[in-house]
Design the sequence.
């Protein structure tokens, strides 16, 4: 029975390692998304992935190491107790408890590793979160305001001026503003910023393919920036259990070239100013 | 042994996971309980055959739908009638048939089934469709038929494909709020204000049609796509067009089912409610003291059976046709509310005119929406009359036709449930909001006047608080003195 338990406790780590190993090939890893491989679709996202893989390497090595050590201890323990301890030639148990050297070692080594990770990721973190480090392009202002609400994403865009150029997004709603729900259109290929708010409870703005996740907190307006490398559709999800309809908070991010986005905004503006009279300048009737 | 315990625990968990699954069932309106059991049976028989052996009624169960051809619902992948087909001499089988498609909702693909709805093959096992020609007027069927169907025989391709897809999606996305029956009574409904719509009155609030006209498919599909801002009705933007269409058809079907049920109960409620029958029995025994009460009751039930096999059949057919026509009429382009005049330029002058109208006795917006548009007009404090029963409500304030208390919109929030286009607001004012006390002004106000009001209303959210009359530091003067005009007067258009 002792051997059984040894095997039992070695079996699960081996299963875990094998499962992790085959996961990417089985599409149990990152969502494949538009890249088809599960790779991040934004430059910052790639760096976040690099950090992730680095941490994964460290934890994997630690995991395998500790499991091997555990197995060794279990098996030698089992072997020793095969013979009664006062019998001839019985192996002695090796006491480690209270070993000062060991204690120091396994305090300092993990601390050093953690410190290394903390310092190493600082740069990426700062770029993502600290306003002064935001890329130049996004400092001119947000492209949209995203308001989370149980259970949808309401989006406000600044309107267009007479020449068809976007106005500046104001903190308060303006008569010229344009609105959509669950449909976020932003420029691809350059860093863009949104303002994130919540109308009711806490939500989380999650673009899995771009590796963006930011809580939306009632009462705060949080700037979030990111860059979608490819012009395509991405999913926008809520990543904070916000009520029974949390699973419904699915929307799309359409990243498109600036020209296309402007055309889309113009169409939105025409639709939103529709007065239903076909000859009044715009032909977009709702039928 | 611990391993055994784990295994037994797992087995238990797996077997428990199967519990709690329940069959979706339609429920009847509460009013059905007022009827005598025989009348209840009739209603069930016509509607869904619930509890009656061998009966499916005109609607069946959610999991076993009956597709009643007389309702204008897109049930099938395609639906049409056979046309005259020339048959080659000597051919022992026809496999190419001329058809006229009346409806095509899904692409016709090889392998779909074709079911005959009328004619000599009606009710027989169906055949597979091989192809539809490009012009859409000829189908190949496989296997062919030895005797061709008659011209005018109706058929469905992919029978029920749209509506059953709609049901699945409805169960997944809508049912927990709107309920299996569409009665707005799903398990989450009680936590919501406003309550989810009860489709069974056949009334919808945010339509593009005139005040007593039904909702269009397009309106419903917009609602599903964009949700209703300011309420818990979510947006389902990510559904495909086909899914959206399927859900909308299912909602329309539920709505028609509810209306038919209401009509059925209504037809029997006067004479064959438990109460009416009891008093009829009493009065019959008064005039004939030898009559036992069970005999008297039998006579009344016999009378009812006579009615149900006689006059009622025609009444029911007429009602159904009337209902089907109403829903068809909504799809007619002439049913849409389209302004005759383009939007009046949104100038301060226009807004000022709009404001004056807003406060005027002609439009009386302020009596409900308040001087400052905050939704606190005098009518919210008055006791109103229930338009269906013509009795006063127990508490002051407005109610909708479903009996839920209702506040006039706070226009300062800038949230418009029926859409924020000028056209949407024009329609709200022109046709009112059906099912609510918000009246239609299309006949009272000229187009230009409605546009002035729209311009003003759209500007209310942008007035700063101290500019806002009746809401700043300044004194507020009630604009209207008609505090206690209880009943909506003749210009109000509450569709019944
Ligand atoms: Cu959420």
Sequence:
């Amino acid at each position: 029975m002792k051997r059984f338990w040894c095997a039992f406790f070695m079996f699960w780590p081996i299963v875990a390692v094998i499962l992790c190993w085959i996961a990417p090939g089985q599409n149990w890893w990152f969502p494949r998304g538009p890249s088809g491989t599960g790779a991040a679709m934004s430059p910052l996202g790639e760096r976040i992935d690099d950090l992730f893989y680095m941490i994964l390497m460290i934890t994997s090595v630690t995991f395998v190491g500790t499991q091997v050590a555990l197995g060794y201890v279990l098996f030698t323990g089992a072997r020793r107790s095969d013979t009664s301890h006062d019998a001839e030639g019985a192996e002695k148990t090796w006491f480690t408890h209270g070993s000062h050297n060991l204690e120091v070692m396994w305090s300092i080594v993990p601390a050093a590793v953690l410190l290394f990770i903390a310092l190493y990721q600082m740069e990426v973190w700062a770029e993502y979160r600290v306003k002064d480090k935001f890329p130049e392009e996004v400092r001119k202002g947000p492209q949209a305001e995203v308001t989370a609400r149980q259970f949808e994403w309401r989006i406000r865009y600044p309107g267009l001026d007479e020449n068809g150029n976007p106005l500046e997004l104001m903190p308060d709603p303006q008569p010229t503003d344009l609105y959509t729900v669950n449909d976020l259109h932003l420029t691809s290929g350059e860093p863009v910023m949104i303002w994130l708010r919540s109308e009711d409870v806490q939500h989380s703005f999650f673009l899995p393919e771009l590796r963006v996740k930011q809580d939306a907190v009632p009462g705060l307006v949080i700037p979030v920036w990111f860059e979608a490398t490819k012009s395509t559709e991405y999913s926008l999800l809520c990543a904070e259990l916000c009520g029974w309809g949390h699973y419904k908070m699915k929307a799309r991010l359409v990243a498109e070239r600036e020209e296309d986005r402007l055309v889309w905004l113009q169409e939105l503006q025409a639709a939103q100013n529709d007065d239903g009279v076909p000859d009044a300048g715009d032909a977009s009737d709702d039928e | 042994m611990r391993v055994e315990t784990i295994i037994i625990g797992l087995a238990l968990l797996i077997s428990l996971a199967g519990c709690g699954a329940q069959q979706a069932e339609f429920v009847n309106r509460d009013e059905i309980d007022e009827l005598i059991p025989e009348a209840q049976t009739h209603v069930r028989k016509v509607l869904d055959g619930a509890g009656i052996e061998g009966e499916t009624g005109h609607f069946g169960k959610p999991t076993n739908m009956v597709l009643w051809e007389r309702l204008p619902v897109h049930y099938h992948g395609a639906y049409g009638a056979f046309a005259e087909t020339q048959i080659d001499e000597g051919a022992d089988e026809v496999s190419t048939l001329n058809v006229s498609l009346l409806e095509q909702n899904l692409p016709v693909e090889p392998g779909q089934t074709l079911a005959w709805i009328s004619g000599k093959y009606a009710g027989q096992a169906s055949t597979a469709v091989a192809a539809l020609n490009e012009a859409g007027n000829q189908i190949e069927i496989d296997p062919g038929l030895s005797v061709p169907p008659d011209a005018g025989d109706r058929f469905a391709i992919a029978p029920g494909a749209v509506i059953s897809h709609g049901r699945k999606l409805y169960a997944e996305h809508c049912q927990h709020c709107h309920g299996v029956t569409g009665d707005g009574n799903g398990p989450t409904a009680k936590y919501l204000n406003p309550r989810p719509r009860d489709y069974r009155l056949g009334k919808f609030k945010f339509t593009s049609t005139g005040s007593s006209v039904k909702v269009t498919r397009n309106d419903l599909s917009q609602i599903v796509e964009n949700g209703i801002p300011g309420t818990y009705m979510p947006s389902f933007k990510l559904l495909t067009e086909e899914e959206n269409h399927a859900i909308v058809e299912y909602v329309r079907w539920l709505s028609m089912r509810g209306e038919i049920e209401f009509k059925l109960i209504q037809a029997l409620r006067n004479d064959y409610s438990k109460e009416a029958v009891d008093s009829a029995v009493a009065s019959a025994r008064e005039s004939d003291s030898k009559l036992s009460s069970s005999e008297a009751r039998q006579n009344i039930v016999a009378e009812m059976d006579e009615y149900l096999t006689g006059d009622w059949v025609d009444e029911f057919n007429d009602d159904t046709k009337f209902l089907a026509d109403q829903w068809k009429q909504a799809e007619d382009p002439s049913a849409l509310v389209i302004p005759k005049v383009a939007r009046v330029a949104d100038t301060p002058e226009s807004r000022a005119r709009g404001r004056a109208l807003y406060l005027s006795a002609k439009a009386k917006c302020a009596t409900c929406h308040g001087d400052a548009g905050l939704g606190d007009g005098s009518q919210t404090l008055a006791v109103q009359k229930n338009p269906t029963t013509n009795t006063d409500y127990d508490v002051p304030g407005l109610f909708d036709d479903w009996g839920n208390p209702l506040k006039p919109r706070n226009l300062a929030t800038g949230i418009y449930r029926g859409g924020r286009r000028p056209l949407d607001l024009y329609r709200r004012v022109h046709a009112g909001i059906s099912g609510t006390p918000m009246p239609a002004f299309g006949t009272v106000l000229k187009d230009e006047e409605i546009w002035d009001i729209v311009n003003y209303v759209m500007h209310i959210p942008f007035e700063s608080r101290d500019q806002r009359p009746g809401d700043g530091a300044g004194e507020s003067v009630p604009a209207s003195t008609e505090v206690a005009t209880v009943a909506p007067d003749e210009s109000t258009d509450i569709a019944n």
Residues 241-272 of chain B form the longest helix (32 residues).
